[in-house]
Amino acid sequence: MAVEQLPASATALLGVVFLLGLRHGLDADHLATIDGLTRYNLTEHPRVARWAGFLFSLGHGTVVMLVALVIGLWAHRWDTPIWLDTLGALTSILFLAALGILNLHAVLRSPRNQVVRTMGLRSRLFGRFSHNGRPLTILLVGALFALSFDTISQTSLFALAAQQVAGPGFALLLGLVFMAGMMVTDSANGLWVARLLHHSDRRALVASRMLGLTIAGLSLLVALFGVLRLYSPEISLWSEGRKLLVATIVVATLLLSFAWSFWITRGSSRIP
To answer: Which helix (H) or strand (E) holds 205?
Structure first.
């Protein structure tokens, strides 16, 4: 997605950035890290466990806001190199394919009597950071995860668009809106994981597998779509002007799967 494809209207841009925040909160690395933080704290720090997603996204979003402000202030000097779009697309394809394979493997290999854990790449590299129960440390973990190519590139995208619409102050506002969207899904994920771990019946197990398969399937499909766009002129031409539609479908599918998984565990039996 390029800056030119974002809406020129301030109101529409706010809506799109909120949608991007919701989608970012459903990133497999977010889900996996919040899963680890919630599991670790559930016994010794149950109150912290329920807030793990919120605290993680607060730290993550703070960095996003700072980056958006800096880019908004320097946007008039920003000259995006042509190769950056291709590099970003290839990086996204590789990460999505890896995430899809990891999560599919997790679903297929997890014992039938255990809740499936969402898998992420950064969460595997920095897994030890999820073993803490201090709110400030969880904030710092979220901030650390914001220092990545995909987060910085997304932030740069809407910050540059904000500069064209209303200046650096609007870029900061978009950073706040992005963080708000991310907080919705990250906070819900923390509560959902805590609920799953408190339940042991078949519905909770099915719900975790359903979400795992959805994440794996969407990751692989979006990666395949990215490859087709890069190497097929026809697909690339068809996708022009439809990228926001595709992104909306992906977000809606993830949110529906997440909501269904959350709803199906409502009446589950608690672990004795």
So the answer is: helix 202-231
The phi, psi pair for 114, rounded to 5°, reads -125, 145
Query: What's the rounded Cα separation, in Å, for the pair 116 and 192?
Result: 13
Q: At 118, is the secondary structure helix, strand, or coil?
A: coil
Phi-psi region of 93 (alpha: psi -120 to 50; beta: other; left: phi over 0): alpha
Tokens of 18: 């909120």
Residue 146 pLDDT: 82
Contact 24, 146 (CB under 8 A): no
20-41 residues labelled b (16+ CB within 10 A) or e (exposed): bbbbbbbbbbbbbbbbbbbbbb
Q: Is 1 exposed, middle or buried (0-12, 13-18, 19+ CB in 10 A)?
A: middle
Contact 85, 92 (CB under 8 A): no
Which tens digits make up the pLDDT trace of 210-235?
Answer: 777 887 888 888 888 888 888 888 88
Q: CA triplet 13, 15, 18: central angle to 5 degrees?
A: 110
Q: How far apart are the first and last CA of the chain?
A: 49
Estimate the crossing angle of helix 28-41 against helix 83-109, to 10 degrees. Answer: 40
How far is the C-alpha of 22 from the C-alpha of 180, rounded, in Å? 8
Asked if 107 and 220 count as a contact pair (C-beta separation under 8 A), the reply is: no
Whole-prediction pTM: 0.69
Give φ, ψ of 270 to 5 degrees. -80, 155
Give residues with Cβ within 8 angstroms of 191, minimum separation 6: 50, 53, 262
- The residue among 30, 56, 250 whose CA lies nearest residue 120 is 30
